[in-house]
Amino acid sequence: xxxxxxxxxxxxxxxxxxxxxxxxxxxxxxxxxxxxxxxxxxxxxxxxxxxxxxxxxxxxxxxxxxxxxxxxxxxxxxxxxxxxxxxxxxxxxxxxxxxxxxxxxxxxxxxxxxxxxxxxxxxxxxxxxxxxxxxxxxxxxxxxxxxxxxxxxxxxxxxxxxxxxxxxxxxxxxxxxxxxxxxxxxxxxxxxxxxxxxxxxxxxxxxxxxxxxxxxxxxxxxxxxx
Length: 226
Hints:
Layout: H1 2-11, H2 16-25, H3 28-51, H4 61-78, H5 80-95, H6 103-128, H7 132-137, H8 159-169, H9 175-198, H10 206-209, H11 217-225
């Protein structure tokens, strides 16, 4: 950032574009926005890359979303980008006397930063509020997560997730019909668990077990059921 600023300063007299950009950069709000985005964008990029993978484990979606929101909240608690700007402001002032960070400017940037992060978190919640829990519920179809038949927790495994899926896929049905379908789905799931343990786990490709496949174990299992 500082090197770029210096480079533009050298071009200012002979390059109109450099002059215009430098004029904007001399504004404290512009500098503040750069510092804010410098801390926020890597966090959002991590979440974005998760959804760009060739295969995605449904069980990691909600944890990844929650971790992203917590990281954003931590930035607010630490006031990290504004603190970084405070530490660097003298070097910018030395290059351009117009750039000064007053208490008022600092408070304005902090307020802007908090509003921006709050808006981001609300947008993330709004984007995933209807599907995050549903997508995560598909994780029960990962054979590797299913307990063995004689292990503790096998009987109850997946029941809550099946109820979430039933509520989602049968939501347009009348209440009585929806309840009937949801109950039938739960009954079918209880039988499917034995099928997965006794048969499907035995024919899982080795690359799936080793985590080297281009698809997830969940995708593989669902394809076997189609």
